[in-house]
Amino acid sequence: MPSWIRAVILPLSGLLLSLPAAADVKARSCSEVRQAYGAKGFSLADIPYQEIAGEHLRICPQEYTCCTTEMEDKLSQQSKLEFENLVEETSHFVRTTFVSRHKKFDEFFRELLENAEKSLNDMFVRTYGMLYMQNSEVFQDLFTELKRYYTGGNVNLEEMLNDFWARLLERMFQLINPQYHFSEDYLECVSKYTDQLKPFGDVPRKLKIQVTRAFIAARTFVQGLTVGREVANRVSKVSPTPGCIRALMKMLYCPYCRGLPTVRPCNNYCLNVMKGCLANQADLDTEWNLFIDAMLLVAERLEGPFNIESVMDPIDVKISEAIMNMQENSMQVSAKVFQGCGQPKPAPALRSARSAPENFNTRFRPYNPEERPTTAAGTSLDRLRTVWRTMQHSVTDIKEKLKLSKKVWSALPYTICKDESVTAGTSNEEECWNGQSKARYLPEIMNDGLTNQINNPEVEVDITRPDTFIRQQIMALRVMTNKLKNAYNGNDVNFQDTSDESSGSGSGSGCMDDVCPTEFEFVTTEAPAVDPDRREEESSSAAQGSYSLLSWPLVCMVLALQRLHR
């Protein structure tokens, strides 16, 4: 080749060889990374303008990079924070479901209890005056214990209701036998005969079972909402392991280090990272789903046979039956008590003569429902029905939300990875970040749960060390599920009823349309005469008036109580 040609070609070849190098320098600019990095709120002081050698990188590929060591550390912490926020935001629905529904149900039920007690008190004070106020602690204690049970107190409903009827028997026994003086020991003996004598018939037993079932269902349901709320709040606050943090950094911010800040992770790549990071949460799913199923079953009970409506509807029949049984058997009851507890001492003559208030008659007109007092706060028994209907709507709403929360923990990776702000989506599998470059992600997707992460290509997971905190939540759910199953069957943890339970249905009010009597006559026990003079007759008259006046408030009280249990 002539020398002059060689002199021309060599400089040209040198120029041509230098052109790709110039283009390469332009492609390695970190300007886009600087812009994206600054948008995250980080200082641009540490970020280079052009790619540098990446031997210093500990997580991202050690190739030419836009990341310094400081940048990799900061972006690693940023990926951890973003992951924690993603989990919390994704689980927001289930957390708010339990928080808001627990608050609503609890408010309704407490309002139901408060209104029932206030309605009862207002009605009895207005209608029965001093007689009710002198015996009001019997009813107040009943409501107090019911509230204490509902709020988680150590109350045995069966024993508490037995005690209520025993105390009621003591009060009534004194009123139907005013010619005698009864000591505390004697009255305690009387209460011991409650089960044996059955002065109120079978009503206390049936009522006990109905009330117990309704309150067990309500209390256990609200406890379930509490447990669900607490578990959801705790599980949603994740603490990623070092292996998870490395995988998150590699997935979310190694594209920055490679000069590709706008390229998002591949969907399947994201799934493997999330399945590895949330492996223990996914193991919660089985027990969580069983818990949700049990909650739904108890919710059905609250809408169906264990709701307070079913307890209230036949209450007038049951209470009327109880009072009539006490009336009809008063002589036999007194005689058997006298036989078992001994003959009581006669009451002082002055007390016996003044047993009955002068303004009370031996005949007592029935209470007119139209005269039921309604306070400005709306605490009538009609108000109770309104509150209960509202609470039933709340139960229906809770059921729908609970159904949506099933499989929520195993679904977390899928929910997070379908977020367009996180991944490139399923329709862009070629132009996405696969952990090394912008290309398709090839590894298979792992199954859910800790043991299935043994071959996870993205996250180092020690399958031999389950998360202790998650296992605690699993145990809490398991315990609550067992309680819910007991409540579904009408049994509390410490309450088991082996007796046969009838349907509890009655024949209505016991009256044929409008032929019910407008007045009630109550017969008292004819105790042996203490004194042949007129004081004996006055004493008997006083007993008759007192007994009739006590009996009707009892009817109304238990009616209100049953409506409460509704």
Automatic annotation (TrEMBL):
Domain of life: Eukaryota
Signal sequence residues: 1-23
Keywords: Cell membrane, Glycoprotein, GPI-anchor, Heparan sulfate, Lipoprotein, Membrane, Proteoglycan, Signal
Biased amino acid composition, Low complexity: 348-357
Subcellular location: Cell membrane
Keyword DNA-binding: no
PROSITE patterns assigned to the protein according to its UniProt record, in alphabetical order: GLYPICAN (PS01207)
Membrane-topology descriptor: Lipid-anchor; GPI-anchor
Function: Cell surface proteoglycan.
Protein name: Glypican 6
Organism: Peromyscus maniculatus bairdii (Prairie deer mouse)
Taxonomy of the source species: Eukaryota, Metazoa, Chordata, Craniata, Vertebrata
Gene that this polypeptide is encoded by: Gpc6
